[in-house]
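Subgroup meeting minutes
Present: P.N., E.W., G.H.
Scribe: E.W.

1. P.N. recapped why we're keeping a running log of single-chain structure predictions: easier to compare across weeks, and new members can see raw inputs and outputs side by side.
2. G.H. added today's entry (396 aa).
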Amino acid sequence: MPTLSVTTRSSAEIAADALVVGALRGSDGPELAPGHGLPRQAEVHLQAVLAALDATGDLGEVHRVVSVPGVRATTVVVAGLSRSEAAEPDAATIRRAAQCAVKSVASKAAVAIALPAGDLARVAAAAEGAYAGCYSFVKPPRSARGRTAALTASGSRTKITVVSGAGQAKPVKDAVARAAVLGAAQDWVRDLVNAPPNLLYPQSFTEAVKSRVAASSAKVTLSILDEKALVKGGFGGIVGVGQASSRPPRMVTMTYSPQGARGSVALVGKGITFDTGGVNLKPVTAMLGMKADMAGAAAVAAAALAAAELGLPITVRGYLCLAENMPGGHAQRPNDVVIMRNGTSVEILDTDAEGRMVLGDGLSLAAEAQPDVIVDIATLTGIQQIALGRIAAVMG
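Output recorded in log:
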């Protein structure tokens, strides 16, 4: 995974493979944004190159320039920072520009970021964006050995140095360290979502969580219910959804409970590792991409572990409701009736409404611990888009 550090050195003196600076719209074309730290000869050279390239300075625009005079870095990457609705780049803009810029040089071993970072929020944003720009999914190995590892680690080893205009006192270093924790958590979610469904299923998802927790210094405990324990525990929703699959369901509880916790939060994630729709089979085009129906559980797993690694002063419990929704001789049918964890009886009308079934059991289990807050996270693809459009839906 990438590494993050912070410096107050002049960007021109940093011997990196690539140096990222920003550009803003100007009356006569793009202008280098404040905070670049480059000598006059480098600034003049870059301005001339940007003019020759008809650059605009718009957010998302990236230009790579080699052999810039007065700069030790091999390549200078100029990232656009201007949005129509904001004259001065805010933290969100810095984050996005850093991601776009680093993505263009993600294969480089060392990258320095000299975007406008004059306060703590912008320093953190530059670090977060740069980390995200390094992401690439590891190609699964040919052999069975190491498959779980392939689901838990991204490939980049880029060293990222953020040039800070806010100094490098403890709050700044803490912000960059936090960005590294969040970046690693987000990359893990991406790895899990990108994994093919023949490699990621309830048991391998569980093993990936166990491996990740074991490799972390954070104090997170795991409770894992297999298919027999789920039946015994009365989890009729998740058992019914997963009963036709050759890969039986799991309920994984991740618990982080520090001493003196000032509250408790429960996160419940939908983890359908593949959703065919069951006997109410989806159309072919609607089934593509259903490997990502476990993204809610992936987000919960990463958030719970990140909370522990950051040492947040609250108790966090993450509930991963993992099942594979398949057709078959053992599949549940419309008009079946199942009993949920909390004793509620539910008649199945559509086996493709499996998310509410696994989440119902997860929410019931979460409520038993009497947390202060419960948040459920799911890829409620069809109905969510009908209700809200392409907007994330979170129920609390």
